[in-house]
Amino acid sequence: MHRRLALCLAAAALPLLSAIPQPVRTDKGLVSGTPGSDPEVIAFKGIPFAAPPVGDSRWRAPEPAAPWTGVKKADQFSRSCIQKISQEHKPWTYEFLAHNEVSEDCLYLNVWTGAKTANDKRAVFVWLYGGGFTEGSTAVPAYDGEKLAERGAVVVTMNYRLGVFGFLAHPELSQESQHGASGNYGLLDQIAALAWVRKNIAAFGGDPERVTLGGQSAGAASVHDLIASGLAKGLFQRAIAESGSSVASAPFANLHEAEEQGVNFAANKGAHSLKELRALPWRDLLPNAAKGPAFPFRPIADGWVLTAAEKQNDVPILTGWTADEASSQADYGKATAEQWQERAQKRFGDRANAFLQLYPVAFQNAAARDQNLVSMYLWAAERAKTAKTKAFTYYWTHTLPGPDSARYGAFHSSEVPYVFDSLNKANRPWTAEDHKIAQTTDSYWMNFINHGDPNGKGLALWPAFADQNPATMELGNNFAQRPIAEKAELAFFQQYFAAR
């Protein structure tokens, strides 16, 4: 009886024997993780990659984390960076949002690895969350890295500062900086996390020479920012930007403009100096803490992290849009004929009639989709003038199942659970087709993470961007190449963007 029990216990322990040995040594100390639902994948959650940016370190570049003695238990997510926590704001349901506590002490990252030894040298996927630079967290359920780790990647997710805490510029901040710059602290957090990966990921079985930087929405914008930043040079070798490559992107504010905004923000909070501003409790700095104007905080051209120079990091990129990017807007596809004509006249001027002939009121959603795809095509064409690496573009068409699917369609970020194959983190009526789509999508992403090219055995061919071929890859309902737009619609938006 005792022998049988011993054999059963030994058998139960066998899967753990094939997981990476613990604890794992980082440059600051030892960490231990916990097995996932697949015991061969170990998750290390809440590893500090920088010191807490609190007190006098608020609005400063991240500083090194303090070393520790003993073994740090990395078994739960850290608190999220300061933001307003919402349980749901549709179409973004529970799985797309952070639900934990918030703190200024939030510069932590997580690692999922299925490596067996520190010598495995698996490709690394580093993920940047979306949320408009005002919300987001590594604790978002849809970003669970276990499935990608099962399939061979070492997955890293990181927190970075948001809103005023991540992107405040102010003359006094610029003055105290040896670089004469301020703002972009959230981007500096991302760069610090990438530097941590460069230094430590081999201990988790990852290859620091095969790092893919990926993100969605604000995360995709961050990917582009770090492609452009000389401070990130050499820290990643490929890039994925989901919902984020367009010639229609808003230009960066410059440092002077951002500093003026910072001065106005401080005055609105009753702070007459940087010292007074740093002394305020974080709750008093939130957008709704007091009546007054809204202050949007996001990356700026500060002359240090981001400059007007050419792109610094020429890496292969995989990028695309969903079919219904704007469906979260209450009036998406619902303009009356009169409203539609007024909008066309305001936007296109003397070309409004040509637009309305192509897109009468019943084709509002088609107009939005074509504009995004043409803008992405023109972005890729502009990139190709100087880049030596390939770009792979896509158009996501699959709708998440659920009671609001008809209302929101393939909404902004709806591809994320398929990319991570984190369907089990959402309470939705998934079908066998959804799981098949996730597996196929994962295969493309894993091929790109491993080799910088999404193509592989058993998958429909995904051609790289070619200027002479205005096409993209449809993902979701179909996996096949499709035209960017019909000939007349393509020509219309090409002329529109050229005139801008």
Fold topology:
Layout: H1 2-17, E1 24-25, E2 30-32, E3 34-35, E4 42-48, E5 71-73, E6 108-113, E7 122-128, H2 146-150, E8 154-158, H3 163-167, H4 171-176, H5 185-200, E9 206-216, H6 218-228, E10 238-242, H7 255-268, H8 274-279, E11 317-322, H9 337-348, H10 352-358, H11 364-384, E12 391-396, H12 405-408, H13 416-419, H14 432-451, E13 471-475, E14 480-483, H15 487-499
Parallel strand pairs: 2-5, 7-8, 7-9, 9-10, 10-11, 11-12, 12-13
Antiparallel strand pairs: 1-2, 3-4, 4-6, 6-8, 13-14
Helix pairs in contact: 9-10, 11-15
Tally of separate helices: 15
Low-pLDDT stretches are 1-16
State the order of secondary-structure elements, H for helix, E for strand: HEEEEEEEHEHHHEHEHHEHHHEHHHEEH
Intertermini distance: 80 Å
Share of residues in strands: 5-15%
Structural class: alpha/beta
User: What's the quaternary structure here?
Assistant: single chain
Please describe the biggest sheet, giving its number of strands, its sense, and whether it closes into a barrel.
11 strands, mixed
Radius of gyration: 23 Å
Anisotropy-based shape: globular
Strand order of the largest sheet: 3-4-6-8-7-9-10-11-12-13-14
Notes on the structure:
Helix 2 links the parallel strand 7 and strand 8. Helix 9 crosses helix 10 and helix 11 (364-384) packs across helix 15. With 500 residues, this protein is an alpha/beta fold. It is globular, with a radius of gyration of 23 Å. 32% of the residues lie in helices and 14% in strands. It contains 15 helices and 14 strands. It has helices at 2-17, 146-150, 163-167, 171-176, 185-200, 218-228, 255-268, 274-279, 337-348, 352-358, 364-384, 405-408, 416-419, 432-451, 487-499; strands at residues 24-25, 30-32, 34-35, 42-48, 71-73, 108-113, 122-128, 154-158, 206-216, 238-242, 317-322, 391-396, 471-475, 480-483. The strands form two sheets. An eleven-stranded mixed beta sheet has the order 3-4-6-8-7-9-10-11-12-13-14, sandwiched between helices. Strands 1-2-5 form a three-stranded mixed beta sheet, with no helix packed on it.
